[in-house]
Request: fold
Amino acid sequence: MRLFYIQVIDKTYFLSANNNVLRKEIIYPARGVILDRKGEILVQNEPVYDLIVIPNEVKPFDTIGFCKLIGIDKKGFKKRFKKAKDFSILKASIFEKQLSAETYASFQEKLFEYPGFYVQNRTVRNYPDSIASQFLGYVGEVTDKEIEKSKNFYRQGDYIGRSGVERSYEDLLRGQRGIQNLMVDAFNRPKGHFADGKYDTLAVAGDKLISSLDKGIQKLGEQLMRNKIGSIVAIEPSTGEILAFVSSPSYDPNLMVGRERGNNYMKLLQDPNKPMFIRPIQAEYPPGSIFKVINALVSQQFGQVNPKTTYSCGGGYHYGNKIMRCTHVHGSVDLTRSIAVSCNTYYGQVYNLMINRAGIRPVDAYKRWQAAVSKFNIGSKLDIDLPNERKGLLPSADFYTKRWGGDSWGSSFNISLSIGQGELGITPLQMANVMAIVANRGFYYKPHLIKSIGEKKIIKPEFTKKNSVGIDEQYFDVVIEGMSRVVNQPGGTAYASKISNIEMCGKTGTAQNPHGKDHAVFVAFAPRKNPKIAIAVVVENSGYGGTWSAPIASLLTEKYLTGKITRPAVVDRLVKANLLPVVVKVKPQAKMPQKDSVPKKAIQSNNSTVSISKARR
Reply:
């Protein structure tokens, strides 16, 4: 009866015997590569080796020699071995991650001297050009919660996309693991496949992703934004494909790979300029004068303004006993000229017309205006194929009703919305998409970063859907003419950024910043006929859009459309400019605590850091 129980019912001895001669090894698939729109590599894989241990199989050996081989000390060895034993003395766990090929080569020759240890092959990410870090994202080791959530698809030591495209397309990039059953000898050395590999399964590599990025202008954009805080987003209007996605300051994505990844990650998190912050989709700014383009279109659609509508600018818009000042005394201004010279007075009058003189209660007129503006995806997410996009802010009528204690308010209560200031918040992605809408004369395709998937080059259906903003095509011509004059007519606010033989249509803006120097904004598309690129550039704490943002947009547009740069002096000026805020650490004066007052521990935590916006050239 005992023999029957041991051989038939109880599998312990059978499994133990198998474990003495069989070793199941996971074959990790190569993660899918990511290419730019021309097929050039943005992310690839390189081999590394994880050192695995089964504590119950470990026999006494030369610990010091072992530590020297893999680059750790004896204290580190004890810590790692204890962690492995705490996990299981019978199951394999990772002892040391990501040994380099050089370390593995020297270690492999002596592996037989260390029973209980063996090496697991895998790959890690490699970024040949060290660009587009916020777009590409990074991978990290799975947590217990993620393992549970995946219904044990992931295992301890597996990697998962943590941010960017790596996270958005994790299911496609990760591939499928394989298993091989190896026969091993008494020294745990492989002696061939069990049953000639009959029970092995092959690993399946992850899908290749073709991104929409143009590596050439992405690299140029990152170069021009060096030592600056801000964003660049460029979109192909006819498809919604994102050509450039620059978030500055950036970081080398290779820092997020390898054995120093954890230390590098903490340094990036503690950087006061926040390189991990994805500014194109997470930073929100008052759009400033670029918002006049939307108000010009909406007011025409409402039938309250036409190309011949004229107002006189005496240097500002008066409402009650207050004035919203203009940059100049512009005199008589029509719709086209209002865009070209960016007249605040004109748009104060237009906003008053839409809210106070619409023939309905101002609060209802505001609701109609808000609904029209929201169709430009202001105040809502564009659902780009990246995680953690912010929606911006377009205040509701209820917001102002609550603020003013009733619904009897009118245009004078939020007149700053007429020129893109006040409570408005718009992301750089939304700014660029507005330009794509103007370039297309009334519609857009959802902005996206992955052009196609896999060898079959599959395109997601939602990326091919045309989205109308409810503005008739006929109302765009007068606005586009004004935008053309901004860049191509002497006296235009971006005339210095004119491109030879290319008609770029743009709009400068200055986004007010209550914490320091204003942010420079410029949006544009080119060429005027059959547009190929729409672009938005934000440079924080730098003042005027025509000085910094417009030339950056102009150079990227020229590079994309012609393949070359004809203004090297402009490139040199921008590259050398340092517009980062100076970070000054303020040490509080030491104070003797009084009896029964603040504890010593609390006093020691009063150190603070103050950022001072100061342009350095």
